What we know:
The structure holds 2 protein chains of 2 kinds. By secondary structure, chain A is an all-alpha fold. Chain A has helices at 10-41, 50-62, 70-101, 103-118, 125-132, 136-160, 164-172, 177-188, 190-213, 220-229, 233-261. The mean pLDDT of chain A is 86. Chain B folds into 2 domains: 2-77 and 155-246, 3-Layer(aba) Sandwich (Rossmann fold); 88-152, no CATH class. Chain B is built from 7 helices and 10 strands. In chain B, the strands form 2 sheets. Chain B has a 6-stranded mixed β-sheet with strand order 6-7-8-3-9-10, with helices on both faces. A 4-stranded antiparallel β-sheet of chain B has the order 2-1-4-5, covered by helices on one side. Chain B is globular, with a radius of gyration of 18 Å. The A-B interface holds A 165-166, 168-175, 179, 183-184, 187-188, 190, 262-264, 267, 270-271 and B 54-56, 73-74, 78-80, 82, 84, 86, 88-91, 99-100, 102-104, 131-134, 151.
Amino acid sequence: MKKNNEMLSAAEIREKRLGVLYKILPVISVLLLVALWLAASSSGTGFPSPIQVWDRTVQLFVKPVKKLSLIGHVGVSLRRIGLALLFDWTFGIAFGVLIGWFPRAKAFFGPLFNAFRAIPPLAWIPLITLWFGIGEFPKVLIVIFGSLASIVVNVQAGMSNVEKMYLDVGTVFNATPRQRLLKIAFPSALDAIFAGVRTSTSAAWMVVLAAEMLGANAGVGFLISRGMDSLDMPLVLTGMVAIGVVGAILAIVTQFAERMICPWTRRKKSY
Amino acid sequence: MENNDVKVRVEHLTKYFGDLHVLDDVSFDIKKGEFLCVVGPTGCGKTTFLNLLTRIYMPTKGDLYIDGQPADPKKHSISVVFQEPSSMPWLTVEKNLRFGLEIKKIPKDEMDRRVENIIKLLGLEEFRHNYPHQLSVSTAQRIIIGRAFAMQPDLLLMDEPYGQMDIKLRFYLEDEVIRLWKETGTTVVFITHNIEEAVYLAQRVLILTNKPAKIKEEVMIDLPRPRDVTSPEFIAIRNHITEQIKWW
Lengths: 271, 248
């Protein structure tokens, strides 16, 4: 007889089983995808198998494309979004605070900003190319145009929905307008601001690939368009897998940063 | 001579919201260091009354004087314990206690001294670095009470701070407030709809009428502390106040 055969209610047993199930399900889904991929690639339509893609990936390290390995191309793309996000997280947050906290600023900038964010980033390409050519700066600019709105919108929402209760506490303690902004409104909006950080990161990652596909000689997006031009489908899939993996890592990193910087948003889990 | 120890004087306080007449010509004094309870039927304008005292609203007529001068949040210090939990979720317990003091720019060593004292009085040592959401509702509410007392306010207003709590916690926290009040000598106005709570806490109870609220009666309570809620004197006062609220 097992000693740890403790008494469990039906609900507890169910919960335990569900816990195991939740761990297994993601593994099953990945395995299913691979199986599906294998099946699709065996039908002889030129769709590469996982093994071919893996070989192509390894080959990319041995024989780089444009003197850059896969890591190098990922690095180039990351540098572009890094520069863009640096701008998003300084100017974008400041602008979001401005239009979220000061109704006059919102009345003044609101309509223009809404029009601006309705324009897809790729629509800017002709103008940006005309003005700035095809160097590094125009690509970063396209990424900024594609990711700025998501952080501004989130920051603005956080700053304009500060709970009245917290502001009342400030009124009672006779806080100055500056203290109301810096000690109450801004910290209370930090979780909304972080939501903006997360969405702007993923938006930037999407836009940089699109920008690179349209004319670049490095970056993951470039790898995909190069693969397309030379009918090198394994290279295309290598690029796609890299995009997925890096995107997932970025999401995890920003989530981790949020937990470090705003530990109070980790509700419930702390019990 | 008697006027000397009047801390707060409320004169002809009247408030309209548009056509809605909420408060009608309320006048009374609060002595320095007094514990005053305000009771009244639900929806009679208790919270409006409190928001007038804190200057979140301005009165339509009448005024509020602290130490003989019109109350001015710049000169006087008024603290409030709101009905809903109002601790800042992004600050730890200790930083929440410091919040008001930092707003008022109290010198650092004075701030440390007061905060340590409050932490000790409330027994919050083990929660010092926790965030409010990690605490029980009652502990979170104690932070607010501590934050208010740490200000050493001229006037401390409490708006049904124990509204959501069960009887056992209520008694525990009521004793705690009495202890803090005695230790600090703060002038307290405590608003509640719970008559037993008012009789347990107050030196004096103001009974408000239904809207527009006026003062119906003042009841002095000089029962010894800690008060026994089952003693005949206690029950007699409680019943009297209940009658007054029922029969406007």
